[in-house]
Amino acid sequence: MHIIWITTQFPSSPKDTKGRFIYRTVKELSKHYSITVICLHSIVPPFLPMLKDFANARKIYKVWRQKYPKRPEAPKDLNAKVIFSKYIRLPRGKFHHLEGWFGYLSVNKHIKKIADENIIIHATWLFPEGDLANIIFKKYNVPFLVTLMGSDVHFLMKGSKKWKKSKEIINNATFITSVSKALYNSLEGKNVFIPKHKKYLTHTVYDFNKFTVINKIYVRKKINLRENIKIVFYAGTLRSLKNVDVLIKSFKMLKKVNNIKLLIAGRGNEEGNLKKLVVENNLEDSISFLGGLNGNELINYYNASDVFCLPSKNEGLPNVIIESLLCGTPVVASSVGEIPFIIKENENGFLVPPNNIEELAKKISRALNTTWNRDKLRKSVSFLSPENVLKEYQSIYYSINKLIK
Length: 405
Prior knowledge:
Strand order of the largest sheet: 3-2-1-4-5-6-7
Helix content: 40-55%
CATH architecture of the largest domain: 3-Layer(aba) Sandwich
Shape: globular
Largest sheet: 7 strands, parallel
CATH topology of the largest domain: Rossmann fold
CATH class of the largest domain: Alpha Beta
Number of strands: 13
Strand content: 15-25%
Order of helices and strands: EHEHHEHEHEHHEHEHEHEHEHEHEHEHHH
Number of helices: 17
């Protein structure tokens, strides 16, 4: 059995953090299966964002080029073949439902060579990957499964062209896996129903050996942070879905507390607006933007922080929450998606209704004033060990293989 993993997110340079969670999962699975990763690699710069923010067009292009280098390079420690298939990525929104066809034009030459073999297509996200897998299925009758990740469900608008296509994708797919039970419920709320026999939970693989507890004093000295301050940390994309503006506004309420600082890691189209918000609220001394961080830098900041905060409007199962807990840092996060199944009040963090500025400030303050056992925080996510996650995938691949024999 040969697994063809289709994704738009995969590291394409040694410094690229894009799709690291998929890389970790493929790395673990490739010890047991023959895997080829086909990563759709964009060749079209983000012209619309560049035109909308012409003053920062050069910066936007530079960030894009870092994510999509001219000569993509796969991680060298991977026992799997990686193909970066260059394609035209359309502007998201009105054209997203067509992106699968552009992906198909790019990958068909690779699929055609192996279509007669015993292969399974594994697509991450409904669009464009699931749509692309569905096109391959109709062309070559190759079984496929799709993993729901979060944004593919949250942004699905009832009655839209993508919504109609999603029904066809689910009907033709052998299985629909998800990182969260809540994503299945969200789809059903939009009248997209998945038969019970097609549902499987499959989590991503986390590097328990790399994301680990480090002495806080040591790591703060390493990254030049003072010992006598309280640090709240956010890491993720800077877009409206993540509600970082709510976190900044809550920090205005926390400003009365001495020796407290918010560190924001990540990049995105809201970065400029968020920096303006910090200035408007006179929070320049309390809030710092770190830009994009690589894996090792993230580990340092998780360990150096007193609280990790994720105030999102919607989520599936956010990797950053698991990574923070593996590093022994408590979490304050919105009570959305799979987060309430991970975060238990006063055990490994606190939950907050999304968009509630006052409650977020209260829970952050409470977390900062709680004494946490870092080893217990780490153990709270031990059920997501690589061994347990591997069993999830083995079960679903075995089921598919049994069906196609």
